Amino acid sequence: MAKNSLDASCPVARTLDIVGARWTLLIVRDLLPGTMRFQDLQERLPGMAPNVLSDRLKTLEAHGLVRREFYSNHPPRAAYALTDRGRELGVIVLALGRWGIRHLGGRLKRGLQHDECFRHLQQAADALVRRPVKRVKSGAKAIS
């Protein structure tokens, strides 16, 4: 996460300060279907270092997008779930996926990884259908 926003007055820049780091939206994508343990997230995101996953989860938790639930004290083990605020990002994740299919589909590498991405997107879409996102009212003004 950036120490200082590029534009503190811009909601897009402020949002990217939180979710714009590499891997973050993939974590959101994988949490859309429901609660996952740390090691399950590691398995679904090969190539992501455990310290990076831990850092991203802490950032998401600090901003109220993810909640951590301990299921073991010795050793400490936690599972993670999206909050309602975090689930709202599901719409954005799916929109990015659809954009990628439409505009990058011919350039996406075929094979297991490509199929896996479609499976993850389908799980996320199914989760949003089963439990639609409810708009959370905030103090922000609506854009006209």
TrEMBL record:
Q: Which InterPro entries match?
A: HTH_HxlR, WH-like_DNA-bd_sf, WH_DNA-bd_sf
Cross-referenced Gene3D superfamilies:
Winged helix-like DNA-binding domain superfamily/Winged helix DNA-binding domain (1.10.10.10)
Q: Which PROSITE patterns match?
A: HTH_HXLR
Q: Cross-referenced Pfam families, in alphabetical order?
A: HxlR
Q: Which GO terms describe its molecular function?
A: DNA binding
In this chain the HTH hxlR-type domain maps to 10-108
Q: Which UniProt keywords apply?
A: DNA-binding, Transcription, Transcription regulation
Protein name as annotated: Helix-turn-helix transcriptional regulator
Which organism is this entry from? Bradyrhizobium australiense
